[in-house]
Design goal:
It is a single chain. With 233 residues, the protein is an alpha+beta fold. The protein is 45% helix and 15% strand. The protein has eight helices and eight strands. A hairpin with a 2-residue loop joins strand 1 and strand 2.
Length: 233
């Protein structure tokens, strides 16, 4: 009996966790504030307790709901009051600007200088002289503003008229036609099938991925059989 109870409470825990994550949004871990991160760990711990609850499983369930409502209320307050959001989630800190490292900003963010230099290298900057400013965002990520002579060249710099980028839609995923994506770019299933036939592809299931844009440009990646000799040593 106890095993069935654990199975049922585990399923309930998974269902509640899924509902909570849908309610709280789709932000990635790197986008979470420290408050969100700690609450996520806490809710996960309560969910584990719910899954193995031997007696009263209702108490951890109530605790999960209370934490979820608390996080939602916190998010609502942050969205409505700018001052509250800046005080609770923090604000960006300028760590480096005009050739100077700001010691006070490092102390407030509790960021070690070696870690700062490592994050700069991860961002592609090995020489601080290439940077105009470095800002730490409230989520702990660094934003870089390179000096004019070191920033990437764009079409405007070269006085070139570039075409606007278009959104590609995945119209086939693992051998399955994505009807909604086709409609979103103004294309039809008939057009897709005919275009594949023109390229000698008669079976949809042999296509691993196909993308298309509103102009009708189709890019197809077929399923390839892995060969042992293709393995990287």
């Amino acid at each position: 009996m106890i095993y069935w109870r654990v199975i049922l409470t585990s399923v309930l825990s998974i269902a509640v966790m899924y509902a909570i994550t849908r309610l709280l949004g789709y932000r990635q871990v790197s986008q979470l504030s420290m408050f969100d991160y700690v609450n996520g760990i806490t809710i996960g711990s309560i969910a584990a307790e719910l899954a193995t609850a031997q007696e009263n499983w209702l108490l951890p369930l109530i605790a999960m709901v209370v934490y979820c409502l608390g996080v939602l209320a916190f998010s609502a307050l942050c969205g409505r009051f700018t001052a509250f959001r800046r005080n609770m989630e923090g604000k960006p800190e300028i760590l480096y600007s005009d050739g100077e490292l700001r010691f006070e900003a490092f102390r407030r963010t509790k960021l070690d200088l070696s870690e700062f230099l490592m994050m700069c290298r991860n961002g592609g900057y090995f020489d601080l002289q290439e940077l105009q400013s470095v800002i730490m965002e409230p989520n702990g990520k660094l934003s870089f503003l390179p000096k004019g002579e070191y920033r990437p060249v764009c079409a405007q710099d070269m006085d070139i008229s570039a075409k606007d980028s278009v959104l590609l839609a995945n119209v086939i995923l693992d051998g399955e036609i994505m009807e909604e994506n086709l409609s979103a770019v103004g294309l039809t299933r008939t057009w897709l099938v005919n275009t594949l036939h023109e390229r000698g592809i008669d079976k949809i299931r042999t296509v691993f991925l196909a993308t298309a844009d509103p102009s009708g440009t189709l890019c197809v990646y077929k399923k390839c059989v892995f060969r042992e000799k293709d393995r990287l040593e």
